Amino acid sequence: MVSIASLYAKPLSQSLLPAKRAQSRFRREQNISRVRITMLKQQNQGIWNSADGTSEPLFLGIDFGTSGARYALVDKQGAIHSEGKTTYPLQVGTVTNRASSWMEALFHLLGDIPTMYRPSISSISIDGTSATTLIVDRNNGEVLAGPFMYDESFADALPAVESIAPANHAVCSGSSTLCKLVSWWNSSSRRSTTTSSGDSAVVLMHQSDWLLSLLHGQYGVSDYNNALKVGYDPEIDSYPGWLLSQPYAHMLPSVRAPGVPVGSIKEDLRTQLGFSKDCVVCTGTTDSIAAFLAARTTEPGKAVTSLGSTLAVKLVSDVRVDDARFGVYSHRLDDMWLVGGASNTGGAVLRQLFSDDQLVALSEEIDPSVPSPLDYYPLPKKGERFPVSDPNMMPRLQPRPESDAAYLHGILESIARIEADGYRLLRELGASAVEEVFTAGGGAQNDKWTGIRRRVLGVPVRKAEQTEAAYGAALLALKGATKITQKTT
Asked: Residue 437 and residue 135: Cα distance in Å, rounded?
């Protein structure tokens, strides 16, 4: 059995639109796409055998984020050979056009991969936003309802969900996948969207599940990272009894581990794109898990803090920790757990107060070895979720000193304290103690802030070498191809 840890250890050095049609529509809409090809000839001498390709197998990961999609193509050492990105086309009319825009983005990116690489692609995996779901006809993949987006809340279903789920379960949130499913199941629109075969032909699929199904043709296959918020229990590797007893249980997708081969790429797509006849499509994961995997750290005590608009922490732990009061839940990572939480503090507050140029200039005046006496709780607006759960908490950004540099120092240090409190809370809830932190997001570029965080956290802090979710998805594809290789040998 191939473990994620072994693969991510740092190395030594509706109807389906045909691909061509989707690509042409993209070009007519003049969406911007960028492709960067990295030959890495000096690092990979001996890879190239001819001018029209490479003999070394390559692994494709595609990330579907909130505003666009990108791909990364890597070899078995993790070196990037090609990468590209695209924005989604404008969405006009009903929300089901979101699904069409994802589909077009998928085929556009596949068409952007240089032809010289395509015959060497051995496996593909895709990540998507967590709890973004669709109701699909399992016979043909037609979208019957949704997409229901990751940040949409279905409070109408929350009482029903809380009545069947254990207290503080990950599904006990209005934005959980299960709340979306229950809301749709109880709605009057369900009767108008069911198939000719009735409810039995309807299945719930996550964003990445559905996109992957466009490649392998099997509907209703998911992974245990995506399925967590619909109620799947990765510890027992099955749906719990309280969920299977519900009348909509037949809509739940089958669940496999992330990065497990599902099937070969559909023959018509394979020939059209020029991919290898042995190319397989693997299960995916969520975008946040893929971004964590990109950092290639899977030992207990290792963590990744993402400093973007918000502050999110993920910690590898020997122990599973779940507590919906603080938005804390654990994803399975082979035989370990990835425990995470997210605060509303972060870069959004900084952008409310300083320009990018000011942040750069003022940071230069900060001595990270000297603690700031200022005690703030920087929030962009009312409400906090982790490590304090208080929807009524107000931002605390006063008093403001005369020096802008001192003010910035106080804010950066206060955010670092919140980060430390987050890891401390995870420890109090039973997770492994943090031993080293890798940093992703825009905040990773600020060396002075890194110095402050290193002092406040009391552990080594450094920038992650890879932070793109597409890179993590490519490593999942590598995992799937490795499973096949081990099985055949």
From this structure: 38
